[in-house]
Amino acid sequence: MKKAIALIELIxxxxxxxxxxxxxxxxIATTTKGTKNAITQEAISNGVSFMNMILSSFWDENSxxxxxxxxxxxxxxxxxxxNEALDSNNNPLGQRxxxxxxxxxxxxxxxxxxxxxxxxxxxxxxxxxETTPDDIDDxxxxxxxxxxxxxxxxVKIGDYKDKTIALTVQVNYISDKVNYNNQSLFFNPFxxxxxxxxxNIKLITLTVSSTxxxxxxxxxxxxxxxxxxxxxxxxxx
Length: 237
Hints:
It is a single chain. The protein has 1 helix and 7 strands; from the N terminus they run H-E-E-E-E-E-E-E. A hairpin with a 5-residue loop joins strand 1 and strand 2.
């Protein structure tokens, strides 16, 4: 008698192998889905980081003044409640209506005393000889592709699962007007109409897409307001 595999054992082996092979497509599908989710999370992370960088920029090119402060700018079509306060003789007081004088947030004027207005939409984009954005509307129509750094000391192969993530930015003025006759005020900046005239709110729309999956897009929105910045008062001793 020679040792051999019984027919029943062979059948069991074939069944086990068959079950294993049946589960392979499901395993591949699960792995693929996990990879897509990782790419999506990476794209969102890149988009949020880029949006934070935009929002940390100056509100407007004209916010960078000769006097070195970051003033409130005059706009073409803003809410009346956000206009410059006037005294009893209708002389401008410098600060916004309802704003405390102690905040030192002032409307901007050049060295000749002329009003400084927010940039019109027709001038959005890089200004003059600029090569890198320094204010929010410089990013209008800005497109960049997130790729791994070419410096081997900065990044290793595989740090980016998708090297073709594109970020596209649009910047617009939106209406800042609210019905102040209502007892309760509700304001949703993302539902306000886009307007061609300058207002006190800039809406940033950032679209994240990938050439590997063009059907899928991620849209992030943020807004920034024309509030200037406070300035410490100097006291002589």
